[in-house]
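User: Predict structure, ligand guanosine-5'-monophosphate.
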Amino acid sequence: MADTTHASDTLHRRGLMLILSSPSGAGKTTIARMLLERDDEIQMSVSATTRPMRPGEVEGVHYHFVDPAEFDRMVEADEFYEWATVFGHSYGTPKAHIRAGLKEGRDFLFDIDWQGTQQLYQKDQQDVVRVFILPPSIGELRARLTGRGTDSPEVIESRMARARAEISHWDGYDYVVINDDVEECYELVSEILHAERMKRARQTGLIGFVRGLMAG
Ligand code: ADP
Ligand code: 5GP
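Assistant: Predicted complex:
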């Protein structure tokens, strides 16, 4: 059988932080789920939160559940890339685990809004790749929010009202993808991820590899 292992597959690289943002209902959760299922090298970033655990949630999988005093200590100790208060509870992205993972060549996926994206980008520009997902039309966005069946008509109206404001931040991203057909959208995001992994600056194993080529 032919050997399908290539030198480029085994070269060490630095990981990256892939941010997916979109107006609510455009499909970022769907695309994130597809990436996590189909790509072994990317994992979801796990935030810390002070909110109580919900039934079915698992410590370290959905969140790191911490009490407010511990959260405050982490803020003081500068242990978060970014943090925010949402619906009365604190949420933050812890740095240590991600920093170690990036060094080992693991990628992290973030499902965050434009404000979180800005904060993360300010902290670590070289590791962040920002992707914004747009719906094909406002009518389709409404249809998806309605079809998802998770929100009341009032909540759908408030999400629609916020959608335009969220869309206005499209120019704060490196890539913009329109989610018309879901498989096509996934393919495009996957291509972005693969191309970003190949950036010279991330291919930290290249120096040794090229040295070997020259010596050979
Ligand atoms: P978000 O995470 O951005 O709020 P979701 O991923 O939950 O959005 O998608 C909203 C709804 O639209 C879900 O019911 C999902 O199955 C559906 N959906 C996502 N992408 C597409 C698409 N390309 N075509 C049709 N429906 C889609
Ligand atoms: P939930 O409590 O429903 O899981 O999340 C509530 C909100 O908190 C969501 O809008 C989610 O995007 C946001 N959130 C979750 N983790 C973080 C985080 O690490 N940082 C920020 N800024 N928001 C977060």
